[in-house]
Design brief:
The chain is of the alpha+beta class and about 375 residues long. The protein has six helices and 26 strands. Strand 12 and strand 13 form a beta hairpin. Helix 5 runs antiparallel to helix 6. Keywords: Cytoplasm, DNA replication, DNA-binding, DNA-directed DNA polymerase, Nucleotidyltransferase, Transferase. Belongs to the beta sliding clamp family. This is Beta sliding clamp.
């Protein structure tokens, strides 16, 4: 195998597939990058058995400057190979595989030789063929991931909660995540055949890496779902992820349908106030911020306290405060994550009691996005 290529183009594709490679894998060959050269172009593959990423560099695209000498394949150590490529001196690099998988990498006056492995020993990626292809807008998918992945659990004791539950039914896509302390749910209406139905759980870590690989210059992503794998195809990149097995908890019943106290805030204003209050609460072992709502006097106050450092008290600007007076305590980090997911919007918060979960929704389009947070008992 021998080829030369524009180095900056190669590095971009290399960075994409490296997201799937882990040094902690129990399969030694998966610490490497698989490189396959055909007459059509160059395919790079990285995998850690949970996720796999393929990125294709076309031979017909002039900007790639891909000049093919001879086709073939090789697996090279991801750690050494990527560091070498990124430090080469010229804009063009040349790679040639010689006897016994010895691989020569040249650029200008620099020349490296590293040991490779037989690509035939690299695990095959699953073939996912389905007629029910789902096309999503990239910006919508990235927003959906960002708004829900914050509530994914990091505790492996309940593996099912480390994923995002995706349900496609009647042309509506619903994504929901919960770690049992908070919940995030987002719905999107799609122009699809209403008979297409999916119910899958995708690991949150996989979707975070997917979001990082999606370029802003790509408009749409194709989603294919098989029995235990999902494939996302965006431009020249194919992203595979395993699906989590099991039944996701019934989360719809967790969202309150009534409330006793309601208030509206500007999400950025409330976020800034909670960030100030949590400066002190983080020094306390319980990390709690308290919100006091008094509709009779039309005021809302936030409190943060650390016995070792001091306390903070701030009156908040709010709108449409109504219902019963209430004091409620919560983890400020959960609240900050939730508020960031709303961006610059106005939000409506509905409380039921000091010990029951409360909900945050945008004042506009409030049927399609909800964040739920469980309060902290402070007595």
């Amino acid at each position: 195998m021998q080829f030369s290529i524009n180095r900056s183009v190669f590095i971009k594709h290399l960075n994409d597939v490296q997201r799937a490679i882990s040094s902690k894998t129990t399969i030694p060959i998966l610490t490497g990058i698989k490189i396959v050269l055909t007459d059509a172009g160059l395919m790079l593959t990285g995998s850690n058995a949970d996720i796999s990423i393929e990125s294709f560099i076309s031979a017909t695209d002039d900007k790639n400057e891909l000049d093919i000498g001879s086709t073939g394949s090789i697996v090279l150590s991801a750690r050494f190979f990527s560091e070498i490529v990124k430090r080469l001196p010229e804009d063009t690099m040349n790679l040639e595989v010689k006897d016994n998988f010895q691989t020569e990498i040249k650029s200008g006056p620099a020349e490296f030789t590293i040991n490779g492995l037989d690509a035939n020993n690299y695990p095959n990626l699953p073939e996912i063929d389905t007629e029910d292809q789902l096309i999503l807008d990239v910006s919508v998918l990235k927003q959906l991931i960002a708004q829900t992945v914050i509530a994914v659990s990091n505790q492996e004791s309940r593996p099912i909660l480390t994923g995002i539950h995706l349900v496609l039914d009647q042309g509506e896509l619903m994504a929901v995540a919960t770690d049992s302390h908070r919940l995030s749910q987002r719905k999107i209406n799609l122009d699809l055949n209403p008979n297409i139905h999916y119910d899958v759980i995708i690991p949150g870590k996989s979707l975070v890496e997917l979001s990082r690989t999606l370029d802003d210059d790509i408009d749409t992503v194709e989603v294919r779902i098989a029995e235990n794998q999902v494939l996302f195809i965006a431009g020249a990149t194919s992203f595979y992820s395993r699906l989590l097995e099991g039944n996701y908890p019934e989360t719809s019943r967790l969202i309150p349908t009534s409330s006793t106290t309601q208030v509206e805030f500007s999400a950025p204003v409330l976020l800034a106030a909670i960030e100030r209050a949590s400066l002190l609460s983080h020094e306390s072992h319980n990390n709690v911020v308290k919100l006091a709502l008094n509709p009779t006097e039309n005021n809302v106050t936030i409190y943060g306290n650390s016995p070792d450092v001091g306390n903070v008290e701030e009156a908040l600007a709010s709108e449409n405060l109504s219902g019963d007076s209430l004091e409620i305590s919560f983890n400020p980090d959960y609240m900050k994550d939730a508020l960031r997911s709303f961006g610059q919007t106005q939000i409506h918060i509905a409380f039921t009691s000091a010990l029951r979960p409360f909900t945050l929704v945008p004042t506009e389009d409030n049927d399609h996005f909800v964040q739920l947070i469980t309060p902290v008992r402070t007595f």
